[in-house]
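Sample intake sheet
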Amino acid sequence: MSNVFEFVAESRGKSGKGAARGARRQGNVPAVIYGGHGEPQMLSLNHNEVIKHLEHEAVYSHVLDINVDGKTEKAILKSVQRHPAKFRILHMDFLRVSMSDMVRVHVPLHFLNEHTSIGGKKGAIAAHAMIDVEISCLPSALPDFIEVDLAGLDVGESIHLSDIVLPAGVEIVALAQGPEHDHPVASMMASKASKDEVTE
């Protein structure tokens, strides 16, 4: 697969549960693309190809090319419905984007320097309160992930949303709602071994 950010789809004329089940029986994933200046369009994608795409973390926070019957549209992946028991994708939602309009997307957090942090050197363990964060930016500024540097974190300390160094043009949605939404992202917790050392 030459481009993990390109999904090749076919238009699916019918909507509803019956049509979706029919697509799944044929080994496909029913999907919909909506938003922007176009009408919602029902799609069908090859299940095996979808699985290959979703193995890449960046697909969930990247502007994608959705090729429908030879016509390409820009979109982001808004949701993926998975089977609760089987290794199967049941449905996907794509949201059209304009490169000149702001988008809101959840992107993964990558934590750096956990073990070499001030607390880490004392045997403490980093507890992650979040694994992703919702950001707002232009599609051209959309990062694949955001780094959270824990190097300066000591035992008992936390790093909050406002402490994260963001790429240019990127804002955290929660922070725009007020200081009470400046939630902790990670905390350095003393491990049982380090607590025992202090007691001794």
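Comment: The chain has a mean pLDDT of 89. The helical segments are 17-25, 47-54, 192-199.
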